[in-house]
Amino acid sequence: MAFSLLVPASVFLLALFCRHGTALQQLTHDDGCVHMPIVHSTNVDYFSSKRGVQLQLANRSDIAYYAQLSIGTPPQPVFVQLDTGSFELWVNPDCTAVTDSDAAFCEQAGQYDTTKSSTAASLGTNRTLRYGIGTANISYFTDTITLAGSPTTLQAVQFGVATVSEDAFSGILGIGYGKGVATRYLNFVDQLRAQNATRVKAYTLALGSKDAQEGVIVFGGVDTSKFAGPLARLPVLPADQSPDGVPRFWVDMQSVSITPPPNGVGRVYEGSGMPVFLDSGSTMTLLPPNLTAAIAGNFGARTADDNGFYRIDCALARMNGTLDFAFDGVTVKVPYKELMREVPTDPPACFLGIMASEKFTLLGDTFLRSAYTVFDLETDSIWMAQATDCGSSPAALNSVQDLSSVTGACGLSDLADSASGTLVPSSDPESIDGGGAEPTRSAGSEASGTVAGSQDTGRARLTSGTSRCFGSGVGLALSLGIVLVLHIFS
Ligand SMILES: *[C@@H]1O[C@H](CO)[C@@H](O)[C@H](O)[C@H]1NC(C)=O
Ligand SMILES: *[C@@H]1O[C@H](CO)[C@@H](O)[C@H](O)[C@H]1NC(C)=O
Ligand SMILES: *[C@@H]1O[C@H](CO)[C@@H](O)[C@H](O)[C@H]1NC(C)=O
Ligand SMILES: *[C@@H]1O[C@H](CO)[C@@H](O)[C@H](O)[C@H]1NC(C)=O
Ligand SMILES: *[C@@H]1O[C@H](CO)[C@@H](O)[C@H](O)[C@H]1NC(C)=O
Ligand SMILES: *[C@@H]1O[C@H](CO)[C@@H](O)[C@H](O)[C@H]1NC(C)=O
């Protein structure tokens, strides 16, 4: 569900950093597999005409993650927020209904004009969609949709065109369950499968670390260069057994623990086993108030501010500690830096990426950046591993059964070796407050560092996206996965 932060809180001002963009993939056939080079957003050949947009969108940072869709005939490009926690696609947020800085972003995200598309058809029905943050009144239409850089054109996809919205600065691409489960019609993910753009109803989300500056979503496939080892399979809890009765990606979390920097004493949080849902549409992770308070206390924050944010020392971002989320068969270690929201105000302000909620327990972007996650809507499973990054090798799946034998191409040494503190259950933890108040980095150095650094990263990716394929080469040569690249920095 959409829980992305708007920018009302004076705390956040204009300073939220993010980059998202679009990708151009060229399919090449080699050794019986399909791999798609990724063009980085700093590739001027492709992005120069959009550079202004890139810079604007870059301000949105780790607040939310977007994909670009082209809707209609001729195609009209719009950015939509990727949301595993909702089910429907809609566009055309009311940009006059958000604050100034959000309005500027909102306009850059693009609008779709039904009257300018020869293939648009109104279904004559309306609906109100409500999110954790925001609402939209939509009218349903069908039209063709192409994915940036993909050869696939989906025909007559149903989606909403907003007539009015509140607290929404882009449209939303809900990639949760569709027809027969959460919607009465084939949603976007259903259509990819139904129109043979993918062979399986499954997709992989690897948002990427803040430093990686890019992430990837592969519809119908995996990217084995984003994790090491096997994938753990977690059953999705049926809606009737889930806390809110909604068919989201609910899984059982066994525990949350903290592994402080070397020499610190770790702690397993009491009563931290609970169902949680995976929600890319939420900037923050939401946990029960007492658990959140216990974690915040270990980060040196006693109380939340008026907006519910726990302010913490920016120096923590440089420390080699992790917050560890354990599931059956996999523990995802989230480095402090990834868990934190670093806002480049002057001086910089940092916040814990977890907020208290009585209502929801969900793992948002502050968790998902550190996880490699396959959402398998065929066998109702989440396949999960610790995220890492050793290149790019997107590959299509012929069958979701293959996920049990897919192994990450990265070495274990690619995983950040940050967990060398001792971990013991404890109810009386030492504070791990970082001490020094020196800013991690200034807004200025962040911006300039990104431009120089990301270009190199992009080149490295292009050349390393070679022949890492899995399974039998024969089937793979014919099957396609669809890859969107999310460009991110923070
Ligand atoms: C985005 O960032 C750029 C460069 O830091 C800045 O000049 C611009 O004012 C920002 N725009 C918004 C809407 O925050
Ligand atoms: C749907 O909303 C549109 C725009 O607000 C309105 O013109 C139309 O009458 C509504 N249709 C129905 C069936 O309520
Ligand atoms: C949105 O739709 C709801 C339910 O139909 C309606 O009550 C509300 O007035 C609509 N909002 C606006 C601003 O039209
Ligand atoms: C998808 O592929 C199946 C099996 O090859 C075929 O029966 C079906 O007609 C195809 N659907 C579309 C929309 O191309
Ligand atoms: C939070 O409260 C629940 C229910 O009262 C309890 O089971 C759990 O141990 C508490 N957790 C912490 C970290 O205090
Ligand atoms: C964190 O770990 C890295 C790699 O092991 C090391 O280079 C760095 O000095 C460590 N940082 C701190 C603050 O201990």
Shape: globular
Largest sheet: 6 strands, mixed, barrel
Q: List each distinct ligand once.
A: 2-acetamido-2-deoxy-beta-D-glucopyranose
Portion in strands: 25-35%
The total of helices stands at 9
Which CATH top level class of the largest domain fits? Mainly Beta
Query: pLDDT average, as an integer?
Result: 76
Indicate the radius of gyration in whole angstroms.
21 Å
Q: Which bin fits the share of residues in helices?
A: 10-25%
What is the fourth-level CATH superfamily of the largest domain?
Answer: Acid Proteases
- Low-confidence regions: 6-59, 417-480
Helix-strand category: alpha+beta
| CATH architectural category of the largest domain | Beta Barrel
> Gap between N and C termini, in Å?
22 Å
Number of domains: 2
Side-by-side strand order of the widest sheet: 3-4-9-5-8-7
- Count every beta strand, where a strand is a DSSP E run of 2 or more residues: 31
CATH topology term of the largest domain: Cathepsin D, subunit A, domain 1
Question: Brief description of this entry?
Answer:
The protein has helices spanning 44-47, 51-58, 100-109, 188-194, 289-298, 336-339, 365-368, 443-464, 473-478, and strands at 28-30, 33-35, 66-71, 76-83, 89-91, 121-130, 135-147, 153-166, 171-174, 202-206, 214-219, 221-223, 228-230, 232-235, 250-253, 255-259, 267-268, 274-278, 285-287, 311-312, 322-327, 330-335, 340-343, 349-352, 354-356, 362-363, 371-376, 381-386, 394-396, 407-409, 482-487. The protein has a six-stranded mixed beta barrel. Strands 14-28-27-10-11-31 form a six-stranded antiparallel β-sheet, with no helix packed on it. Strands 17-16-21-22 form a four-stranded antiparallel β-sheet.
